[in-house]
Design a protein that fits this description.
The protein has 702 residues and is an alpha+beta fold. Helix content is 50%, strand content 13%. The strands form four sheets. The protein has a five-stranded mixed beta barrel. It has a five-stranded antiparallel β-sheet with strand order 11-10-9-16-17. The chain has a four-stranded mixed β-sheet with strand order 12-13-14-15.
Length: 702
């Protein structure tokens, strides 16, 4: 009882400051939904609804007082988060492609972008696909175009012949699940074409906003130099298809890639420029300024400008999140509330999670709110601190440096976990580039928009060009420094949760108990530093095997399966190329006497536990006899029957379609992507029957 009463007093001491914990509890409910190994049944949903009703009864009886009321409120908010995720998953459900398909594809162009390999891609909806009935046709597909093919106009109806396949699962267990990401975008098939794209019908009256965005991007490209036009289009309309890959790589290595995303920085700068400009204009008219609430009017105009920017940018998750945060702050100005407070950030997070629960798992949401929360907490704590009057000229510089340091520290763990790298000189790059973004690029963009109707838009574009050239120069200079990028290994699942909880405690909790957050952060970093990577990794289709050695992960082949190879290297925290990793694969001088002579292409390796792994590649290797004794693991990327007889473990294309990618952990346990993902709506599309386990010999393929 003493512990419970102590906990109640601790919670009572936070009365009035508990609202920031609402989105945290709401997010816990969302994580609960995504951590399930199966979709919720009707019975389970009814039990959740009954729990929420019981929590409401407790709240009504206790009238919000006592530990039971706190527990009931926490349960109610958590169930609400679970329900929001369940509702969102149901609303985006669409027919899925469950097999590979080659045929004619016709659809309406709704978006264009570029792949990691710098291939132009188009996203199509309103589809007609050869050999698929209308009820089985996916809602959207994304197709990579052939080299030299130009992007069709947004809204145009096009046709091509393409290879389509379901979105692939993670290249290793616990890795990024593109299949889940695609499900919430209604993107249930991806593929490529090697033939031209034919125009079937010109853009109609629909997708007016998307066509306006495309026209604006085209106008920017036609009036600016190619090296800066792509950057300008990205920060104006969210269109990144024209940014050269070399620029993207430099921006990422220098930690300036966030300048491309239409995020809180851009939306805040735009709203700030408009807000300040309107207030200044009214201030120049004293009779008007003395009779009207100038500050509130400026906030309303800035809100309208931010809403227009949201439409122009396409309303993606990042720009929607940024708009919600800016809108909350501007509405606080209108209502005479503090514009920047943890309550405003909490409300913005709650709205975003209610609209897009899946964004909680993405780096954009995590990094944006980590930076914003940390900045508000630090600057609130430093309100009483002032520079000496003689150093008034240094206030702006100190503010920029301090903001960059705080935001960099707050976002570094999330950036390292999601992108497997840390920019060693990112602070320097941000200090040199972010002020130019705020003082020159964004104001010039607003000026170009205002002067465009009278033919003076070139003045603003000229200012944007100058600022962007500086930013790109800084990115290239910093990225070219020795040791600019430090690779970081992928953390265990619990690490980011501990770090996030510790950061929230430090920022939100009042009193000395807040410093317990440092314990959670240190625990997360310690677990991260002690984590081990899988000993063996097998790609989802069996085309590549990677085995950890003292010099890095050795790969079974030097070409092919490039995406899996690059992702494994990033997750391992190394900079090895596929060719270098393949050179690490040892060539055993003496093989055991298995009774067979290996013919064709094989990659053979002795595992730490004494077993042998044989990766079979090529037609000749599959036709020749292969050893099959209990201490052998045979991996193949083909589904036809191998000439095997014995007790070896077989992991071929048929087995891997059911299990997904495989990992042999340091404790000797095999982990499958299927075990991690479970049987969810987005995982059942191509994994075959449930409950698959790895077997021995030919039985594993039955």
């Amino acid at each position: 009882m003493g512990a419970l009463s102590g906990l109640e007093r601790l919670l009572q001491s936070q009365r009035g400051d508990l609202f920031p914990w609402v989105p945290v509890l709401f997010g816990c409910g969302i994580l609960w939904f995504f951590s399930l190994k199966h979709d919720p049944t009707q019975t389970e949903l009814c039990l959740l609804a009954a729990s929420a009703a019981l929590a409401c009864v407790v709240l009504a009886i206790r009238r919000g007082r006592g530990l039971s009321a706190f527990a009931a409120m926490a349960l109610l908010v958590g169930v609400a988060g679970f329900g929001a995720a369940q509702l969102r998953a149901s609303l985006v459900a669409a027919p899925v492609l469950e097999f590979r398909l080659y045929g004619a594809v016709e659809g309406r162009v709704v978006g264009t972008d570029r792949s990691v390999r710098d291939r132009l891609r188009v996203t199509l909806d309103q589809l007609r696909i050869d050999r698929l009935a209308p009820q089985d046709t996916p809602a959207r597909v994304r197709i990579s175009l052939a080299d030299g093919v130009s992007a069709p106009a947004i809204g145009a109806r096009v046709m091509t012949t393409a290879h389509l396949m379901p979105p692939q699962g993670p290249v290793e267990p616990r890795g990024f699940d593109f299949r889940r990401h695609a499900w919430f975008q209604k993107l249930v098939a991806v593929g490529y074409t090697r033939v031209p794209v034919l125009l079937v019908e010109e853009p109609g009256g629909d997708l007016a906003i998307a066509r306006m965005r495309a026209a604006l991007s085209g106008a920017i490209r036609s009036r600016m130099a190619p090296e800066t036009a792509g950057f300008a289009a990205a920060i104006t309309t969210g269109e990144r298809a024209d940014i050269p890959q070399a620029e993207l790589d430099a921006l990422r290595a220098s930690n300036l890639a966030h300048l491309l995303a239409i995020s809180g920085l851009h939306m805040g700068l735009l709203a700030g420029v408009v807000f300040g400009g309107i207030r200044l204009s009214f201030a120049l008219m004293p009779p008007v300024a003395m009779r009207l609430p100038v500050k509130k009017l400026a906030a309303l105009v800035a809100l309208a400008a931010a809403a227009s920017y949201l439409l122009i940018s396409g309303g993606q998750v990042a720009s929607t999140r940024a708009f919600v945060m800016v809108a909350v702050m501007l509405c606080a100005v209108v209502l005479d509330r503090r514009a920047l407070s943890l309550r405003a950030v909490a409300l913005a997070a709650l709205l975003i999670l209610a609209l897009r629960p899946e964004s909680l798992l993405g780096p954009g949401f995590q990094m944006s709110f980590a930076a914003t929360t940390a900045l508000i907490a630090v600057f609130s704590a430093l309100q009483a601190w002032q520079l000496p009057p003689s150093l008034w000229w240094a206030r702006g510089a100190v503010g920029v440096v301090l903001s960059s340091v705080v935001a960099g520290i707050a976002t570094a763990p999330f950036a390292a976990a999601h992108f497997n790298q840390l920019s060693q000189f990112g602070l320097l790059a941000n200090v040199l580039a972010v002020p130019v973004m705020g003082l020159l690029v964004v104001p010039s963009a607003v000026l170009a928009l205002c002067l465009a109707p009278i033919g003076g838009g070139w003045i603003g574009l000229w200012g944007m060009d100058l600022g962007i050239r500086w930013i790109l120069w800084v990115a290239g200079w910093v990225a070219g420094m020795d040791g600019a990028v430090r690779p970081v290994a992928m953390p265990p699942p619990s690490v980011l949760g501990l770090i996030a909880f510790g950061g929230i405690m430090l920022a939100v909790w009042r009193g000395s108990f807040r410093w317990s957050g440092t314990i959670a952060i240190c625990a997360g970093l310690l677990i991260w530093s002690q984590a081990s990577r899988p000993v063996v990794l097998i790609s989802p289709e069996g085309g590549l095997v990677g085995v950890m050695t003292e010099h890095g992960r050795a790969l079974s082949r030097s070409r092919g399966q490039g995406f899996a190879a690059s992702r494994w290297a990033e997750n391992d925290g190394t900079l090895l190329t596929q060719e270098d990793a393949a050179a690490l694969w040892p060539d055993p001088a003496v093989l055991p006497d298995w009774g067979h002579t290996l013919k064709g292409r094989h990659a053979v390796l002795a595992l730490p536990d004494g077993a042998w792994l044989i990766h079979v590649m090529g037609k000749a290797a599959h036709a020749a006899p292969i050893p099959c004794v209990p201490d052998i693991i045979v991996v193949s990327d083909r589904g036809d029957k191998l000439p095997l007889a014995g007790g070896c473990r077989v992991m071929d294309a048929v087995t891997l379609r059911k299990t997904g990618s495989l990992a042999l952990l340091a404790d000797g346990r095999w982990l499958t992507a299927r075990e991690v993902a479970g049987d969810r709506a987005w995982t059942l599309r191509d994994q075959g029957e449930r409950g698959v386990t790895m077997g021995s010999g030919t039985k594993a393929r039955q």
